[in-house]
Write a structure and sequence with these properties.
The complex is a heterodimer of chains A (about 80) and B (about 350).
Chain A: H1 2-7, E1 12-16, H2 19-25, E2 29-32, H3 47-65, E3 73-75
Parallel strand pairs in A: 1-2, 2-3
Chain B: E1 5-12, E2 29-32, H1 37-45, E3 49-57, H2 59-64, H3 66-80, E4 84-87, H4 94-111, E5 115-119, H5 124-129, E6 134-137, H6 145-162, H7 168-171, H8 188-200, E7 230-235, E8 239-241, E9 257-260, E10 272-274, H9 282-286, H10 294-302, E11 308-315, H11 323-339, E12 344-348
Parallel strand pairs in B: 1-3, 1-4, 4-5, 5-6, 7-11, 7-12
Antiparallel strand pairs in B: 2-3, 8-10, 9-11
Helix pairs in contact in B: 1-6, 3-4
Classes of the chains: A alpha/beta (about 80), B alpha/beta (about 350).
Chain lengths: ~80, ~350
């Protein structure tokens, strides 16, 4: 679905727990998420750290859409 | 009579009878003998091959702890001393397909044991692992099990007996992309003229070099002025208002919903619910922001990191949607984003 948005000139970034699939399918900007049933979160973290993690993932996604890429690119966020 | 070929079979938590999505983290386990689809496989080839061990693992666990789980699987396979490994069939289940692919890669690259996987040709794992294993094309869902299993089993047996298979067009598995030379009578010039002649006559001769793979689309230009940008959220995670007002399908989506988030600082649990049929929605029901990160985006909107968060988000259940439908829905979402003058969108997937 994202490739159609890209084709229409709208830059997008994907937050997913399985970047390999996204890369293979051709998604341009990929952020490695927390887990399959919680891509923008991680319930095993204490609440305040989970919110911080979510914030960082979204910040990375916004950074990605401002970044020039030539092909599928994975952006990582640390939990530290 | 020749000894039966020893086979190890890899399946997942669902086909092992443990449970569905909610058991995605279930541990690596095994049993001696066939289980689940292995029983059906035995019905077809049991005279010549014996599934001596069946191994299964939760689809989420093996994807999230690959190295550890594969190391244990390696040991379980080695100990069983098989002449053949069978994985799946995974149909169009993405994570299960990935798991089968990882097991197959282990067998072909580390253990030198012939291995065959069964899955739907559009399963994303096919592109990643097509060179690592023979992949027998199966139906999209487990409804095709009955129809697919005998052919899958027979090809597996052939692989076990011969160590390798004939070219894909002969044996019917998904072409792996290896090109082997072979001698033919006519040279390329003669063959291409003959093919052209047939095509002009209305015939449809098979091309010698088929193009395949996912279409690559050039990335859109990045946003240059984030502070002036309008951002939108699109999710394949199936998060919708309680009651699923548009009656979106839980799988095999053919439509998407557009839902208001005006005035909301976060997606309140209870008012929104995950209806996706492909993952356990417990954690996103507890906190819908885990799949539609409204809280983080609202905070950043307030801080002026970008101009505006669109007051609506787009949602559907991204599971089993075939490529053609995904393109159609994707183009419709793109059209809606353009109408709302969205500068960029964050997608989330499960």
């Amino acid at each position: 679905m994202q490739k159609e948005a890209e084709r229409a000139g709208i830059p997008t970034a994907l937050i997913t727990a399985i970047p390999s699939v996204a890369k293979s399918v051709g998604v341009s900007r990929i952020i490695t998420g927390g887990g399959i049933p919680y891509p923008v979160g991680n319930p095993s973290l204490p609440r305040d750290r989970e919110i911080e993690f979510r914030r960082r993932l979204v910040e990375k996604a916004l950074e990605a859409i401002c970044t020039e890429v030539t092909g599928p690119t994975v952006f990582d966020v640390s939990l530290a | 009579m020749a000894e039966k070929i020893r086979v190890v079979h890899y399946i997942n938590q669902f086909f092992a009878g443990i449970g569905g999505e909610e058991k995605g983290a279930s541990p690596l386990e095994f049993c001696e003998g066939p289980k689940g689809p292995g029983v059906g496989i035995t019905q077809t080839i049991g005279a010549e091959a014996e599934i001596v061990r069946t191994i299964w693992c939760g689809d989420n666990l093996i994807n999230q702890e690959q190295d550890r789980i594969l190391a244990e699987i390696e040991k379980l396979i080695r100990d069983a001393k098989p002449g053949l490994v069978i994985a799946g069939p995974a149909f169009n289940a993405g994570r299960y397909g990935l798991a089968c692919g990882m097991v197959a890669k282990l067998c072909s690259e580390k253990l030198s044991i012939p291995v065959i996987i069964g899955m739907y040709p559009e399963n994303p794992a096919v592109e990643i692992f097509r060179k690592a294993a023979y992949i027998y094309p199966c139906a999209e869902t487990a409804a095709g099990m009955r129809k697919d299993l005998p052919g899958f089993a027979r090809l597996a047996l052939k692989l076990g007996q011969k160590g390798k298979l004939d070219p894909a067009i002969v044996d019917g598995y998904i072409p792996r992309g290896y090109r082997y030379n072979e001698y033919v009578q006519k040279n390329a010039a003669a063959r291409s003229i003959e093919m052209l002649g047939r095509r002009l006559a209305g015939d449809n001769p098979m091309t010698e070099i088929p193009l395949r793979g996912f279409e690559m689309v050039a990335p859109a230009r990045p946003v240059t002025d984030l502070k002036g940008a309008t951002i939108a959220i699109v999710t394949g995670g199936g998060m919708v208002p309680r009651g699923n007002p548009d009656k979106l399908k839980q799988a095999f989506a053919d439509a998407f919903g557009i839902y208001s988030i005006a005035g909301l600082a976060e997606l309140p649990a209870g008012d929104f619910k995950g209806i996706h049929g492909g993952y356990d929605s417990t954690w996103v029901d507890e906190d819908p922001d885990r799949v539609v990160p409204l809280d983080a985006l609202r905070a950043m909107e307030k801080e002026g990191k970008f101009k505006k968060l669109l007051n609506e988000y787009f949602s559907l259940c991204g599971i089993g949607t075939n490529v053609a439908m995904s393109k159609k829905l994707g183009a419709e979402v793109a059209e809606q984003l353009k109408r709302r003058e969205v500068s960029a969108a964050i997608y989330t997937s499960t």
